[in-house]
Amino acid sequence: MKRIILVLICLLTGISLWAEGLRLPHCIGSDMVLQQDADANIWGWADAGARVKVSVGWNKTKYTAIAGEDGFWKVAVATPAASFTPYTVTIASGKESLTLENVLIGEVWLCSGQSNMEMPMAGWSIQPIENGAEEIRESNHYPFVRMIYMERTESPQPQQDCNGTWRCAGSEFTPGFSATAYFFGKRLAQELNVPIGLIVSCWGGTMIECWMDRDALKSVGETDASIDESIAPREGGWAGNRYTVLYNAMLYPLRHYTVNGFIWYQGCSNVGKVFAQDYAKYQAAMVTLWRRLFCRGDLPFYYVQIAPHPYSGEGDSGLAPLLRDRQKAAAALVPNSAMTGTCDLVYDFEEGIIHPRQKKAVGDRLAYLALENWYGFKGYGSACPDLDRVIYEGSSARVVFHNCHNGIHGDNGWEFNGVEGFEVAGADGTWHPARIKDCGGNVVVITSDEVSDIKKVRYLWHDFAIGHLWNNYRMPLLPFTTE
Q1: What's the pTM value of the predicted model, to 2 decimals?
Q2: Is the N or the C terminus of the chain less surrounded, counting Cβ atoms within 10 Å?
Q3: CATH 2.60.40.10 region(s) of the chain?
Q4: Is the per-residue pLDDT at 416 higher than 50?
Q5: CA dist 435 to 98, 438, 461, Å?
């Protein structure tokens, strides 16, 4: 009976127990990058009870494991400091042997989210990556930036493997790389001088609930009934936003891979949902889940605030600013996490385009967060300026910011004529455009002829509003409201 139950479990989870022989998950392969200075996991399946031996090119240790009744085996191999030396890894069981070539030791990050993480270096139809062709050509000089792109798949139950192949940066494969992830990895490689491995698991148009398991969803108020209703099969299969199905199929299978951090670009598909005000709690629960899944402690989690765009398709709904605000609030709920802004990385003509072309700055800003907060580099100015407090002075308001790094400036330096984005309201709650009256250090004084006694201030509080104020590190002033 026990054996029958085990067979049924494996059929549900996509594992075959017998007659498969020695095999590896798709994420373990030639050209991969393993995390430096770690006990990096290598795992797979073999005949039940078989002895599996793993040997690596950087030391003489022989690692062994015995395949369980389900055929699963795993070893943790000690990795050295990062280098550009290519190694081999050999896995053997009985008469079977697999050799992995061109394995590098470096830094490994998991990159996830929806279409702005998915958007490739080659761009999409009428949606290019800025300077994408030039960057693709230049990527021939960065073969030590490696990426595995996990194929789209869904499942109502946790799976043990998902498809993908490790590729080296270069003009042959870089066009298909996630642009945000590639620029992030390239910047890390340049600054750390080590190989970078990027595991990209993302799906455009997906909500955050897709990337969480049942328990995490229930921890933020979802019920078994609401989850089951979402997961229930519909005509056409599993396609669409179904709770848990991407976590099951595209994250859970990666749980043994030894990663050193996460980057996340998602949120567009949660704009306007009834629980948007709780998005911060959902993200905090998701990060807690992921960290527990990968068993590496409080790994860093860096993420991107959604860009200006009329997400509702019905003009200025005011819904996107609420989601951005909850994204910002999420950082306070999760230790070792931080957000970067994108309010300045959209051109006027991109109002109807949900995939802005300026992806290099997004990847760089995520890398600056990692370099400063995780790797201990100083002076990268990775934090965006944000509201500290407002001092109301009748027809003027003195707005004080933090993370200014020697002050706020606009397109014309210290000349703020024509800079838009600020609005003020009086006791009646009606908002009016405001202009910058004065500026000094981390303080901007704003005023409006329409409001004699200012009670509220906001900045870029619209679905599509482009920022034109930065600190000296060219990090944008984040949208905010005092309401």
Answers
A1: 0.94
A2: N
A3: 20-105
A4: yes
A5: 67, 9, 15
Q: 20-105: what CATH class?
A: mainly beta
Phi, psi dihedrals of residue 308, rounded to the nearest 5°: -55, 130
Largest CA distance in the chain: 85
3-state helix, strand, coil in the chain (%, to 5): 25, 30, 45
Q: Which of 405, 456, 112, 76 is nearest to 252 (CA)?
A: 112
Alpha carbon distance 335, 271 (integer Å): 24
pLDDT at 240: 62
How many whole angstroms separate alpha carbon 218 and alpha carbon 224?
Answer: 7
364-370 average pLDDT score: 98
- Residue 304 contacts residue 368 (beta carbons within 8 Å): no
d(C-alpha 311, C-alpha 269), whole Å: 8
Rounded CA separation 123/232 (Å): 34
pLDDT at 15: 46
Q: Is 99 within 8 Å of 88 (Cβ atoms)?
A: yes
- Kindly report the number of other CB atoms within 10 A of residue 56's CB atom: 25
User: Where are the domain boundaries for CATH 3.40.50.1110 in the chain?
Assistant: 118-373
Find out whether 249 and 155 touch, Cβ atoms under 8 Å: yes
Residue 16 has pLDDT above 70, yes or no: no
Share of the chain above pLDDT 70, in %: 93
Q: Could you read off the pLDDT of 69-122 as tens digits, one per residue?
A: 999 999 999 999 999 999 999 999 999 999 999 999 999 999 999 999 999 999
Neighbours of 237 (CB within 10 A): 8
User: Which range (126-135, 364-373, 436-445) has the least confidence?
Assistant: 436-445
Beta carbons within 8 Å of 428's beta carbon, 6+ residues apart: none
φ, ψ of residue 348 in degrees (nearest 5): -55, -40
Segment 146-158 mean pLDDT: 96
Please tell me the distance from the alpha carbon of residue 250 to that of residue 243, in angstroms, as a whole number: 13
Reported CATH class of domain 118-373 = alpha beta
Q: Return the closest-CA partner of residue 201 out of 132, 294, 138.
A: 294
Strands (E), 287-408: 301-304, 337-340, 386-393, 396-402
> Six-digit token pair at 433?
């455009």
* Model confidence at 239: pLDDT above 70: no
